[in-house]
Amino acid sequence: MAATEPRTVLLVEDDLDIRDVLQDVLEAEGYDVIPAANGKQALDFLTLNDPPGADLVILDLMMPMVSGWEVLDRMAGDNRLAEIPVIVVSAVAREKPARAYTFLRKPFTLEMLSRAVRHCLTPPMA
């Protein structure tokens, strides 16, 4: 990453062990990570901050309270959130949801995640 301020990743995963490992990996790569245990926490973070406070969302689909599907719908319907790239991670989905930037089927490798995050957060060449 360039010598600019760190990019912020909102990590939405209900499995604490998975969330902790992914957070450790992303922080080791220089990202600021905001963990959320469910979709409600994610939406609260995104909608209560102005600007939303995340450069990228990593989103599990199957979660309690508010599912990842609902988060995708709410983000798509909010102009402030619609442009934030979302990496969907799921063991149940078979293909990339239409509103996701990219999709990783669980189980995935940490290298696959790192590559997807870099791809989402690297500005296109002019």
Task: Give the secondary structure arrangement, pairings included.
Blueprint: E1 8-12, H1 16-28, E2 32-36, H2 39-48, E3 56-60, H3 68-76, E4 86-90, E5 102-105, H4 110-121
Parallel strand pairs: 1-2, 1-3, 3-4, 4-5
Helix pairs in contact: 2-3
Task: Explain the overall architecture.
The chain is α/β, with parallel strands linked by helices. It contains 4 helices and 5 strands, in the order E-H-E-H-E-H-E-E-H. The radius of gyration is 13 Å and the shape is globular.
Short description:
The chain is an alpha/beta fold and 126 residues long.
From the 3D structure, determine the CATH topology: Rossmann fold
Which regions contain 5 or more consecutive residues with pLDDT less than 50?
none
Q: How many helices does DSSP assign? A: 4
Give the total of beta strands: 5
Report how far the terminal alpha carbons are from each other.
18 Å
Element-level helix/strand string: EHEHEHEEH
**Domain module count:** 1
Overall morphology: globular
Helix content: 25-40%
The CATH architecture name reads 3-Layer(aba) Sandwich
Strand order of the largest sheet: 2-1-3-4-5
Rg:
13 Å
What is the CATH domain class? Alpha Beta
Largest sheet descriptor: 5 strands, parallel
Query: What is the average per-residue confidence, as pLDDT, rounded to a whole number?
Result: 90
Look at the helices and sheets and give the structural class: alpha/beta
Keywords:
4 helices, Rossmann fold, alpha/beta, 5-stranded parallel beta sheet, 126 residues
